[in-house]
Amino acid sequence: MQVKMAKNYGFCFGVKRAIEIAQRNRDSLTLGSLIHNPKEIERLERDFDVKVQEDVSAIEPHKSVIIRTHGIPKGDLAILKEKGARIIDATCPYVIKPQQIVEKMSAKGYQIVIFGDANHPEVKGVISYSSTPPLSINSLEELQVKKLSKKVALVSQTTKQTPKLLEIATFLIARCAEVRIFNTICNATFDNQEAVKELSQEVDVMIIVGGKTSSNTKQLFHIAKGFCADSYLVEDAQDLDPQWFKNKKLCGISAGASTPDWIIESVRERITTF
Amino acid sequence: MQVKMAKNYGFCFGVKRAIEIAQRNRDSLTLGSLIHNPKEIERLERDFDVKVQEDVSAIEPHKSVIIRTHGIPKGDLAILKEKGARIIDATCPYVIKPQQIVEKMSAKGYQIVIFGDANHPEVKGVISYSSTPPLSINSLEELQVKKLSKKVALVSQTTKQTPKLLEIATFLIARCAEVRIFNTICNATFDNQEAVKELSQEVDVMIIVGGKTSSNTKQLFHIAKGFCADSYLVEDAQDLDPQWFKNKKLCGISAGASTPDWIIESVRERITTF
């Protein structure tokens, strides 16, 4: 099987940075998974003694705690400070931005609209920075039933798709006197998405490598599926099913922003054997 | 010929207000036409001695000067003040808004984008309130070749169509870190447009009554034409051509925001005789 890699794929700047931070801080905890990739989390625990703790109240005083790429809610940060934790901030700078915007705009009296998945850790963190109850919506349909103020500020989860953000912005502009739109979608996400769009149109089968809970990985898969019916999402080489490649000539490969190169490489190698 | 009036048409709040102001201020000048309707301007001159002066430098000291609905450039206002003119402000409050926004946003360092016709008096006025050179664009195509800043504030000429504003906003949001969008399109315009859209789909022939230099009248005509090929723009009953109504059953009528009721009524009456 012949393979072709997407023009852009895999680790983004924020993830690379967080992993380097974790590797420099052996024997520390991360509050929640550092990144959304179980295999890489296993490697960090095995090789660097960096363990995941999901529950902030269970963290012992004065521990070294790494803040994950997605950030954490303001309240959790306060608890860590109370516990005298040594806080190592690996929050992606692109995630800190919407947190700061929401804090500032809510203080200025703007109604906050957050386009994102309210259950995603990044969005939970961003929501916590609003001093007034924000509207957190994951689709235009969800927004359509909400009561809007005259002055609205809109931010987006960093991994959302730009066309969807534009749809939401458009809805608001037609209804509000002032809409302040902060395009907080990350370029790395956009570049990976554009590359998948391109590649999935020229291949017979498309493989997206990444964590099944990773928002940006799921989106890459969704985009690929739109252009190439035979698209599959795998976490590693073991998930590959030889049946997928029967009678196919060219396989495209891309990977989510939290997928390490060593996993992508093993998937690529395995596919070439089919 | 049977006629049907649009649900909303004719004089808007700002125009009604300006005419009342003019009628209360006999023997005054307006700097440029008070509203974009030559017949009504004639009536004000004939019945109330309100004359039009196009050239600010030609105005004698200490005259009573009415500021037109569209507003005037900041520089012209300064000249009037120097001349000791008694200034009577009939600028539409919906036009004052984009002037104020542009003044404030340019002072705060936002690049100003004005969606409007740079030759229209309203837009000339709004442009003059920017402390930095604004981008004044009349279409998305014009914007596409401009250099954009990271932080942009967008306002619109009050008589523009919302879908076009949304197109321009969408373009900016995808390219700028922050876009502050002020929907300064006037509801009256929108309501008249929606009513024309509806009515022009159910009639055989559509008549739009208004000044041929009136931006909002021209837009009503443009919308009507999109749904009803036999649409015509007339300034008064004399412009009506009986040929237009041959073999037609139902004629729709609408009128621009600066068209007085007495003109609309005479057009309606005439059409019923065909």
Automatic annotation (TrEMBL), chains A, B:
One of its GO terms (molecular function) is 4-hydroxy-3-methylbut-2-enyl diphosphate reductase activity. Keywords: 4Fe-4S, Iron, Iron-sulfur, Isoprene biosynthesis, Metal-binding, Oxidoreductase. InterPro entries: LytB/IspH. It catalyses: isopentenyl diphosphate + 2 oxidized [2Fe-2S]-[ferredoxin] + H2O = (2E)-4-hydroxy-3-methylbut-2-enyl diphosphate + 2 reduced [2Fe-2S]-[ferredoxin] + 2 H(+); dimethylallyl diphosphate + 2 oxidized [2Fe-2S]-[ferredoxin] + H2O = (2E)-4-hydroxy-3-methylbut-2-enyl diphosphate + 2 reduced [2Fe-2S]-[ferredoxin] + 2 H(+). (2E)-4-hydroxy-3-methylbut-2-enyl diphosphate binds at residues 36, 70, 120, 158, 214-216, 258. Isopentenyl diphosphate binds at residues 36, 70, 120, 214-216, 258. Pfam families: LYTB. The active site is at residue 122. Binds 1 [4Fe-4S] cluster per subunit. [4Fe-4S] cluster binds at residues 12, 92, 186. Belongs to the IspH family. Pathway: Isoprenoid biosynthesis; isopentenyl diphosphate biosynthesis via DXP pathway; isopentenyl diphosphate from 1-deoxy-D-xylulose 5-phosphate: step 6/6; Isoprenoid biosynthesis; dimethylallyl diphosphate biosynthesis; dimethylallyl diphosphate from (2E)-4-hydroxy-3-methylbutenyl diphosphate: step 1/1. Its cofactor is [4Fe-4S] cluster. This is 4-hydroxy-3-methylbut-2-enyl diphosphate reductase. Dimethylallyl diphosphate binds at residues 36, 70, 120, 214-216, 258. Signal peptide: none annotated. Its EC number is 1.17.7.4. HAMAP family: IspH. Catalyzes the conversion of 1-hydroxy-2-methyl-2-(E)-butenyl 4-diphosphate (HMBPP) into a mixture of isopentenyl diphosphate (IPP) and dimethylallyl diphosphate (DMAPP). Acts in the terminal step of the DOXP/MEP pathway for isoprenoid precursor biosynthesis.
